[in-house]
Amino acid sequence: IGAGYKLSEGLAPLARHKKDFTVVQGCSNQYSNEAHWGSTFWLTGANRYSVPGQNMANSISADQVIAQQLGQDTRFSSIQLDSSDGNASGHGPGLSLAWDQRGKPISGFNDPVKTFHKLFSAEDLPLEQRQAAIAEKRSVLDAVLTEAKRVQNGLSKNDNNKLDEYFQGIRDIETRLGKDEDWLDKPKPKAPLGEPPAGLKGREEIEMMYNLIIAALQTDSTRALTYRMPGQSLLQSMDVKHSAHNVSHYSPGERMEASKARDQMHSALLAGFMDKLKATKEADGSSLFDHTSLAFGSNISSIHYLVNCPTLLAGGGANLKLGEHLVLPKDTPLCNVWLTMLQGMGIDAERHGDSSGVVKELQA
């Protein structure tokens, strides 16, 4: 459609940023088949039945591909944010939006106060005690690895495959311990914002989490973040009496109006987030927004529809063509969008999930 499109009612609060984001239509994750799993495969595009004998399999999420290549020089390879009502809001299985290279869920921080302290507060234990704790964990891992190798001989092929997965898990833990050790004696950055008040829910929680995302990027604490946002508590903070599930199953009337109000609230909060990204300046005078690549969306469009996933892309960090409404052929793999973003950020990736290629119309 191009740049001359009219914003929908739900996106109207984003009008002041219209030239700085692109709306993409027509994308789907072809293997998605669970009508209440809005986040599980959103960033992975995985086939849940790809592993024989398993009812649920996943693969690495796009943010973790970024973390593997851009997270080596930051304290946190990635940060996952979640909400206390995450699983009750139609997100589906998972602990956040992130899944590791083995397709295992990665836990997230679901409280702004805990997130703040993880990012900026000094550790309670002295350096020597923290070093000793890491050494003890390494010792336990070594013992477990030795025992696992002892029983490896004589196992069936299937059991050996499971053991290989187990070994990979141990290697992942060793990598994390090594990174923790590298940063033990390096002080955390000074917080560019105050400690959040306790008990934030709904709209206030989202606003604060957005502020913490900006603070994490501003201090270069990480370069890869995801946020699995609250649904139920957001509606409650808006005085909507219906559940997140019921609001998504609407016909003309009260629930449809509640759905519209929720969409507008999300857009208003996102617009405020983009305001702050633009207002946060780098040393060269550019803004944090200029160097950030932002994706906002879901694996579910409405009701139980798993096609035409709502997708909004913003920021200058992935060299994307912004300010447009892009309608792609029906059932274009959503992973084509993620692959385009990854390559635009300089990530070495030839494919992602079920991608079939980049979206050339998105490339600036």
Task: Give a structural overview.
With 364 residues, the chain is an alpha/beta fold. The protein folds into two domains: 9-121 and 197-362, Alkaline Phosphatase, subunit A (3-Layer(aba) Sandwich), CATH 3.40.720; 123-186. It has helices at 62-70, 112-120, 127-150, 157-182, 202-218, 232-237, 244-248, 254-279, 334-344; strands at residues 21-28, 79-81, 225-227, 294-297, 311-314, 325-333. The strands form two sheets. The chain has a four-stranded mixed sheet. A two-stranded parallel sheet has the order 2-3. Helix 5 runs parallel beside helix 8 (254-279). The relative contact order is 0.19. The mean pLDDT is 91.
Summarize, please.
With 364 residues, the protein is of the alpha/beta class. 37% of the residues lie in helices and 9% in strands. The protein has 2 domains: 9-121 and 197-362, Alkaline Phosphatase, subunit A (3-Layer(aba) Sandwich), CATH 3.40.720; 123-186.
**Main sheet, how many strands, which sense, barrel?**
4 strands, mixed
**Dominant shape:** globular
Task: Please indicate the percent range of residues in DSSP E strands (runs of 2 or more).
Answer: 5-15%
Helicity level:
25-40%
| Widest beta sheet: strand line-up | 4-5-1-6
Q: Radius of gyration over alpha carbons?
A: 21 Å
Strand segment count? 6
Total helical segments: 9
Low-confidence region ranges: none
